[in-house]
Amino acid sequence: MRIAVIGAGALGLYYGAMLRRAGRDVRFLLRRDYEAVRRRGLTVTSPAGDFHLERVRGFRSPAEMGEVDLVLVGLKTFANDRLVDLVRPLLGKRTAVLTLQNGLGNEELLAEAIGADRVLGGVAFLCSNRGEPGTVHHLGQGSIRLGEYAGGLTERAAAIAAMFTAAGVPCEAVADLAKIRWEKLVWNIPFNGLCALTGADVTALLTHPPSRELVREIMAEVVAGANARDLSEPIAGEAFIARMLELTDGMDHYRPSMMIDRLEGRPLELEAIYGIPLRMAAGHGVEMTRTRMLHALLALGEPK
Amino acid sequence: MRIAVIGAGALGLYYGAMLRRAGRDVRFLLRRDYEAVRRRGLTVTSPAGDFHLERVRGFRSPAEMGEVDLVLVGLKTFANDRLVDLVRPLLGKRTAVLTLQNGLGNEELLAEAIGADRVLGGVAFLCSNRGEPGTVHHLGQGSIRLGEYAGGLTERAAAIAAMFTAAGVPCEAVADLAKIRWEKLVWNIPFNGLCALTGADVTALLTHPPSRELVREIMAEVVAGANARDLSEPIAGEAFIARMLELTDGMDHYRPSMMIDRLEGRPLELEAIYGIPLRMAAGHGVEMTRTRMLHALLALGEPK
User: Fold this and answer.
1) Fold classification of A179-300 (topology level)
2) Which pTM does this prediction carry?
3) What is this model's ipTM?
4) Are the beta carbons of B300 and A210 separated by less than 8 Å?
5) Is B184 annotated in the active site?
6) Alpha-carbon gap: B242 to the closest alpha carbon of chain A (Å)
7) By CB neighbour count within 10 A (0-12 exposed, 13-18 middle, 19+ buried), where does A92 fall?
């Protein structure tokens, strides 16, 4: 299976490297890391053991990459105006496109342009950061849940999940993509935004009782927004929230991607993580008060 | 009338200087400004005209200041554990104490220690900042509304108000101190906190539509909290909020005191402006959701 990785940041580089290590034909679209990867290959540091890939296929433009069987999208959503143009040259007759991007709206964008039947979406529970060019730091976790944009469990989705799992990335195919997208938002909406806004990491948030309570309240808003939709089954609010908090208690001083984006002066993924979910929830009659406040405060700090 | 100013920051220095200029016997308790004031007096810059006071009575401790007729309190509320000890040496038989401090709880603290009949409270609509030692910058406005802690309109309150007004500080005595305290909170709770949290000034907040809307929503929460109390008459929410927004639209890039406190690494007046009002409103069955979120985020950034 030929695989293209579009948007090779901390997420794309890590998953691409895991698949490459497992012997897959992985082609990376690179910008910042191009020279380093061509010269020295790709290094992954990880609590599960560091590894180095000597020969890695890096490209500067999708036109050079050829048709592939699977496109893995890790692009930051604020660059989504380029997404379709980046993906189109890679498409053969049966190419599937799996977006692991944050938030909502990414599958819709792809489906509109290339057809809903090509599109899968997934959520990654991955703690990783970019290092020097040619190096990515895997800090912990890494599992993926994915599903068809059109819904239902397909052989294709099961095969992709099996490929990831065989490569050391625990991956599960599910029938209800909307549900796993919203479940991921239960984590992303409080932690990404509060950390980016305040400069506090997840541990600082969770060890300060009033902000821990705030995280919990925001999570409850997102669960209410999710459950107002027609999910296959509702998110079990209290239990799910308790599990997310416990999981995050184990992430020692982790800094979410949005916090790093702000610290490094990049735009934030506000539309995918806040704007679209807020509008969807409001469309179902759910007003996410604290989430809207957080969105307003984050937007205030964005470059005009 | 002998007047002592306790807590001679941007507010205490300005009002004290205005009264001194009008010929009153004003005695300042000074720390940072002591040497400069003793040597060169006190300078006020103001759009209404700068002025300089050559001879100003500055003291290092309240014990040296003697008994006075009126104590004017401008102390930051985070220093309230020292308030009673600073005031007590100044008290004669009929000394009145007027606190112009921010937020709630200050009159209660004084009344408990020195008797409710001595205590008045007031709110200042003043834009001022400290400059070099011995200099205070009056940026705009400056009017005061004050009232008896025990309630009702007294001759004493009217006399103090007349004294301020004669000195160029428009001042009105009112019967319902609680109402004017809460009216001030309608401004302080959104602007002080949001500016301190985000580093944006009032103009940046009000020209960004989502944060302008957030300011309006927080103001509505405070009005609801106020009107749940037994005020002489309720705050006219919508009209009052519109007036506060209009007033603030005229404050070109003003930075509220709490924003400056944070920028300069001082503690914030969180208990007086957030903690006590939140508890009071909750005690009357009003949950101020956005205000509580703002309080949590501000507290997160405080030194442990």
Assistant:
1) N-(1-d-carboxylethyl)-l-norvaline Dehydrogenase; domain 2 (1.10.1040)
2) 0.88
3) 0.84
4) yes
5) yes
6) 20
7) exposed
